[in-house]
User: What shape does this take?
Amino acid sequence: MDEGSVVRITGRIAIPLRELELRYVRSSGPGGQNVNKVASKAVLHFDLRGSPSLPAAARERALARLGPRLTRDGVLVLSSDAYRDQPRNRAAVVERLRALLAQAVAIPKHRRPTAPSTAARERRLAEKHLRSRRKRERGRPDED
Assistant: This one.
């Protein structure tokens, strides 16, 4: 990804890479001597609150849904150390950002409240009656 490219979130929303701050740090965990020499973990910072690329409505939805994951300044921080090399970790963290934002800015479908039909209600009550009878018959027989 070159500096002029963008991260496409939806068909209408794209974030230029210049708005993303990528840093590389040493990864934790096993890896032998390589882990002490190479900074392969990718850490991405995205200023969600201050991004001019997001429409106001989409920004508000994303801030509400991603609230617990944001810093006090409204910055989303993601990291990836799944791979042993920088380019794959960078691609993975950018893809995670894309997927997370796509889900966060999506307009929720309007739910139309529905009620169960009369037939469905009757089936449920008949099933409850059968289950009740079956459990009643499991007990000890009466001594009559």
Q: What stands out?
A: DSSP finds four helices and five strands in the chain. The first strand starts at residue 6 and ends at 8.
